[in-house]
């Protein structure tokens, strides 16, 4: 549930949150790439890209800052990356390495506060309000709240280098809510730290920050000061025309309150604002973050977002916390992009079995069972760019078939999940060769407490009963067997004990980590 919004003071006409900033967002820079550079000194200072697949169409998941300097970023495929930087080192993911880094990262965060939330494999949010470290530093100190928060940030940066390695850097954002803290962590990359409060909030909506733009803190909005921005920003020896050529160009609005030195912050620079939201905002005459901040709440609620979401954005932009909530897990699943596209059902069954085994492992790890199953089958199409292994980003553009159904029993054991998924596979309309298989189970429930059937047999401890009847109900027995197999695989290595159908599949359906999925890390 969303946390109730704190009292909004009537003396503040724009409802800006005047409270001290306690929220800290810590983001590991170029996560996968920088961990690889830390692990291998020979990669340091070189352009490195970690790609989902090392085939030409495999897309880059993380690029080192040396690679980013060449224009290589998330979503660029391997072929494009090599053409942009001939010396780039392309690597495939090493999930075990990243999980260990995440574990060390989290251990360190918990030393500072018990209120730690992992937002992804490389991001943590800390609430320092109840932090013993914060209160110890404040006692008997002449430092202001902001100075203490920045001091803690510098300590965390230094300890991360000690625990994770000297090559590892993070960006830290400090603010009154999660939105602004994440926004602040995006400035001055890599290894930056930004504190945003009611005093500098507007400046960070206009400008890219003091390390990027020398005019930070000087620019004033035309609305706030009633002056012409280009004239106020004109530097010595620079004509108005030459100065305007470097400014933020907006054919609709001439004075938008943006910094003309660095071009200003764009709407899509704000966390949570994608191109679709940007289109909505522009349609309402909102072109910049400053326009967004100055927009009337009723306009956002009734015209732009047409829901309570507009009110949430009105508060979020002003530093009020409305994102402190835990979302309940609704499904668990795995997907695989086939290197060799096929319609061969026995081959698809093999892949399906491994997907079901990985899904079952995660169910059992969380002591959950499912009541429904969904199968997605993606087919090759007319566009060859969508037919490579790295096609998950285009999953909704493909020709596909999918179906889900509720089952009348618990889905917990791999064999039962596979049986239900296989049933769906055999009803699929195979319009072409398959390139993606995805299995999801839903309707998740805790295994305990279990609703017992009134028809279950009650067994005694007598020898006769043990001889004539199996001592456990079938379901409980299967659960114990599955849990025991998982424990053996956890101890001695993945798939030490494996279904016969999965033999010789070591290189198929590889171990992966999703950036936003950390519950099972």
Give a structural overview:
With 521 residues, the protein is of the alpha+beta class. The protein is 35% helix and 16% strand. It contains 19 helices and 13 strands. The protein has helices spanning 31-39, 65-68, 78-84, 95-110, 132-138, 145-163, 178-185, 201-206, 222-225, 229-233, 240-245, 275-283, 289-294, 297-304, 309-317, 345-365, 414-425, 463-468, 474-492; strands at residues 23-28, 48-51, 60-63, 89-91, 116-120, 123-127, 170-175, 193-195, 331-342, 368-379, 399-411, 434-442, 445-446. The strands form three sheets. A five-stranded mixed beta sheet has the order 5-6-1-7-8. Helix 14 runs antiparallel to helix 15 and helix 16 (345-365) runs antiparallel to helix 17 (414-425). The relative contact order is 0.10. Mean pLDDT is 79; it is low at 1-11, 219-256, 386-393 and 456-472.
Helix content: 25-40%
Q: How many individual helices?
A: 19
Globally, the shape reads globular
Unreliable residue stretches: 1-11, 219-256, 386-393, 456-472
* Largest sheet properties: 5 strands, mixed
Distance from first to last alpha carbon = 24 Å
Count of β-strands: 13
Amount of beta strand: 15-25%
Rounded average pLDDT: 79
Cα-based radius of gyration, to the nearest Å: 27 Å
- Indicate the structural class: alpha+beta
Strand order of the largest sheet: 5-6-1-7-8
Compact overview of the structure:
This protein is α+β, with helices and mostly antiparallel strands. The chain is built from 19 helices and 13 strands. The strands form 3 sheets. A 5-stranded mixed β-sheet has the order 5-6-1-7-8. Strands 9, 10, 11, 12 and 13 form a 5-stranded antiparallel β-sheet that branches. A 3-stranded mixed β-sheet has the order 3-2-4.
